[in-house]
Amino acid sequence: xxxxxxxHIETLAVHAGRMPDPTTGAVMPPIHLATNYERDAxxxxxxxxxxxxxxxxxxQALETSLAVLEGGxxxxxxxxxxxxxxxxxxxxxxxxxxxxxxxxxxxTAVLLxxxxxxxxxxxxxxxxxxxxxxAAAMRPQTALVWVETPSNPLLSVVDIARAAxxxxxxxxxxxxxxxxxxxxxxxxxxxxxxxxxxxxxxFLGGHSDVLGGVVVTKVADxxxxxxxxxxxxxxxxPSPFDCWLLQRSLKTLPCRVRAQSETALKVARFLAxxxxxxxxxxxxxxxxxxxxxxxxxxxxxxxVLSFTLKEGAAAAKALPSRTRIFTHATSIGGVxxxxxxxxxxxxxxxxxxxxxVRLSIGLEHPDDLIADLAQALGEVPQPEPKPVxxxxxxxxxxxxx
Length: 401
Ligand SMILES: *Cc1c(COP(=O)(O)O)cnc(C)c1O
Hints:
Blueprint: H1 9-15, H2 57-70, E1 74-78, H3 81-90, E2 97-101, H4 106-115, E3 122-126, H5 131-137, E4 142-148, H6 160-169, E5 173-177, H7 182-185, E6 195-199, E7 213-217, H8 222-234, H9 240-250, H10 253-272, E8 277-281, H11 291-297, E9 304-309, H12 313-318, E10 327-328, E11 338-341, H13 342-346, E12 356-360, H14 366-376
The structure holds pyridoxal-5'-phosphate (PLP).
Pyridoxal-5'-phosphate binds at residues 80-82, 105, 107, 148, 152, 177, 179, 199, 201-202, 211, 213, 332.
């Protein structure tokens, strides 16, 4: 199986990187917990595994699956999305320069501002929705352009092909964070990206029970060899069980993401007509400034959306505790829908407006999710207040109106 496999993504999601276990015939792979592997009489490790930080059968299989799904040459998996991003920055040398979209995951910005600045890696934050702003920030030392599209939580859309053209004209690499798009809806390598990064904790994991990150490379070049070295020597590797769980989740990725994306569009359309909603941030709505670009480079608009409330911060902070199906919790990409006041989660440096609420759409029926938001926004009369445990925790009673 090559990584330019022309079979459809549904087929690749089920089969890439997988085969029955050669020793037992088990259709599902075993989890290899061993930290070390036996040598032969010559002192070599004939099956290619020596020590699990350097390589493990579950991680190798997962990396093959992810490289094939993104259409890249190779992948390196990490213990979290942030560890994957950190590895990319570590692969640069001091005094190199990064141009990065101001609308990226706040953790990525914190990495650059709080940690890598001390290592003399300079970063310029730009409005990457404007290609001229990217071009204006390029310097001779710029080694990397980093964009996230759609971005979390503001859903801004960057034209990947134009960002790639600018990066390449200056001899820099383009990194695309594809956590919200996923390889199901967006194929950054086809638009010129050199590296694709994911927090696999989100849609790729899909069940809110495994933390991880990945860097996929279009070509297995020297830069990727540095990344691989940072992975195995730095040691921020995922456990065999985490790799196994994630590879299991990938099989249903295309079905999950398409359903989540279709439901998100319905929810976005509902919110756009609601009298309490000021603005809906979702690239699938024609009034979104990134709509045409998203249409060009995505086959669906994803399962995350945000909206702002006319009544301001207090209303936005109160809303998440009024939903009954949406769980009031951070993160995105799981099969259960989530709601969060994003500025509270990000803290004082947030770029999220104080009246913004972020939704992650799961696999529930769209009508139920819309009804839940309608009641939370106060369109239908409120039922009895929710019962409260003595400790003050709300008791959720799913299914009650
Ligand atoms: C969650 C997230 C991250 C960070 O990933 P972790 O797995 O939490 O370290 C990075 N980028 C985006 C877009 C995210 O949503």
